[in-house]
Amino acid sequence: MHILVTGGLGYIGSHTVVALIEKGYTITIVDNLSNSSLSVLDRIARITGTKPAFYQLDLQDAAGLDDIFSIAPVDAVIHFAGLKAVGESIQRPLTYYRVNIDSTLTLLEAMRAHDVHKLVFSSSATVYGSAPIPYSEESLVGQGITNPYGQTKYMIEQILRDVAQSDPDAEFSLLRYFNPVGAHPSGLIGEDPKGTPNNLMPFVAQVASGQREKLSIFGDSYPTPDGTCIRDYIHVMDLAEGHVAALEHIRPGATAYNLGSGIGTSVLELVHAFIDATGKDVAYEIAPPRAGDLPEFYANPDLAASELGWSTTRSVEDMCRDTWAWQTNSAKTRL
Ligand code: NAD
Ligand code: UDP
After folding, report:
1. Which has the least CB within 10 A, 87, 120, 201, 234?
2. Which pTM was predicted?
């Protein structure tokens, strides 16, 4: 089976490409390298022994995408490509709406023109906004989303539902990720944030490595047991395997699945797990809360377990250990 992976050199895409190759799939990657590097392709080849076909292309380039669909005998698409920085999306909403929505529309048009009807889409738990926790696929979506990035995920989900309704052959999976962290255990691929990391785990890793002086913990007076925010962290290799499961169990229509562990971990718990797993010190201070942060959310992961036969197998300790392997390795061989 031949899978077109958009954004396949990015953080989650590259790990998913590894999982797909290991399951025997043939891969074509399309990525404009706006947030990734060509060296990831060689690293995928080092891990798997296979170098996937790669096209450097912006997904908004309809003619270029049409050429790729004409060359590659694509059976299904996994669509990761897009802009994902929450804070930047508040500063540059037009760019986020244009890139994320236009890319998806262009992709859907090319798929229809080339008779490709299977799509797995990277959505996010952010679509649940202010719904009560734990979030299940039946929870209300679209209320209380605090930034344009989250809105694009919500809007694209709606577009996919409308397109699926109009196309009796459509098989779409909408995967709502919780908090992806960690790296491939080889330490060869991982998350490589440009500039100051916005997310907790890469920041913690950079403090442990001495690149940054200390972590600011955004708030310790939330209504949680230790006062810091609770999230559902998921190892990126579990997430990658979730995509393989979604592809293998894809079904007619548009179906949303939570990809999370169902376990909540506080900021302080994560910091201490990292210290325990790596033996490294992580200096921190308590700072004011970050605007827009929800005190607590985690998944009800039952639907993915029953319909996809998938659930997470890696612990927070695994996430910390593999993040550290990547941090130390990538610092030596900077991408
Ligand atoms: P990433 O930035 O590492 O990967 C995205 C890739 O897409 C990059 O390689 C980038 O160069 C490419 N890209 C961006 N715009 C493109 C375009 N117009 N044309 C072609 N290529 C383009 O991000 P990631 O963390 O791997 O996230 C992948 C997907 O998962 C994104 O859609 C993101 O919104 C979603 N997601 C991520 C998280 C997370 O915490 N990382 C959580 C929920 C959802
Ligand atoms: N966080 C923090 N310091 C940081 C980055 C994040 O205390 O430097 C907290 C943040 O307030 C949130 C949690 O860590 O409660 C996870 O944040 P992240 O940005 O990784 O994920 P998201 O908020 O998107 O769930």
Report:
1. 87
2. 0.98
